[in-house]
Amino acid sequence: MYDDILSLTLEKGERVHNKYLYLAFKRLFDIIVSAFLLIILAPLFLIIAILIKMEDGREVFKIMNRIGKGGKEFKFYKFQTMVKEAEAMLPELLKDPVLNEEYQKNKKFENDPRITKLGKFLRKTSLDELPQLINVFKGEMSLIGNRPYLPREKEDMGLYYNDIIKSKPGITGYWQTSGRNDLTFNERLKLEKFYSNNFNAKMDIKIFFKTFSVVFQKKGAK
Fold it and tell me: What is the pTM of this model?
């Protein structure tokens, strides 16, 4: 009996040790890759910034609060893809019963009238997400993780919230490579709960390489 207890204790201790070792490696990988990409993609950042300014003179980056690991909020960066008055337009759009139903189901619109022409291209190619490399380098996000949710979405996440915030949000993740925007909000939450409770080296490696296929084929990008 005591041998069984000792065996289980040692096995649990080894799993914990391996997890911390993997998390340390994952953080090191995030730092190296994000720093490298920020340097080599600097000219592309500049080109996109100029195009955004030329389109309608709005701010280059969309900076907003997002929910991070442990529920701690952080400043999240994306290239701006919407018109200046996008947030003010949302309450008006939600007055339309059809649009309201769509938004409650997916937390976004299939054909969002607030997105600019350049913004549609940036979203379709996922280029709008490049500034998140800054968040990864700072340690607020990881290259691979769950979607960084908005604070106002916390209530909609319901019982999934406590599981999802166990891990850092990521630029890409399990839901992005399993349907992305083709999934409903609730389907996404189920996938991300599973990831937070089961992520490991093998799973992250599969997601990392599958991301390239998803991006190049533009699956679920809207």
Answer: 0.80
pLDDT per position as a tens digit, 53-109: 998 778 899 999 999 999 999 999 999 998 877 777 787 788 878 788 878 777 777
Give me the DSSP letters along the chain.
-HHHHHHHHHHHHHHHHHHHHHHHHHHHHHHHHHHHHHHHTHHHHHHHHHHHHHHH---SEEEEEEE-GGG-EEEEEEE--B-TTHHHHHHHHTTSHHHHHHHHHHSS-TT-TTB-HHHHHHHHTTGGGTTHHHHHHHTSSEEESB----GGGHHHHGGGHHHHTTS-BEEE-TTTTTTGGGS-HHHHHHHHHHHHHH--HHHHHHHHHHHHHHHHHTTT--
Low-confidence ranges of the chain (pLDDT < 50): 2-12, 14, 220
Q: Do the Cβ atoms of 173 and 146 come closer than 8 Å? A: yes
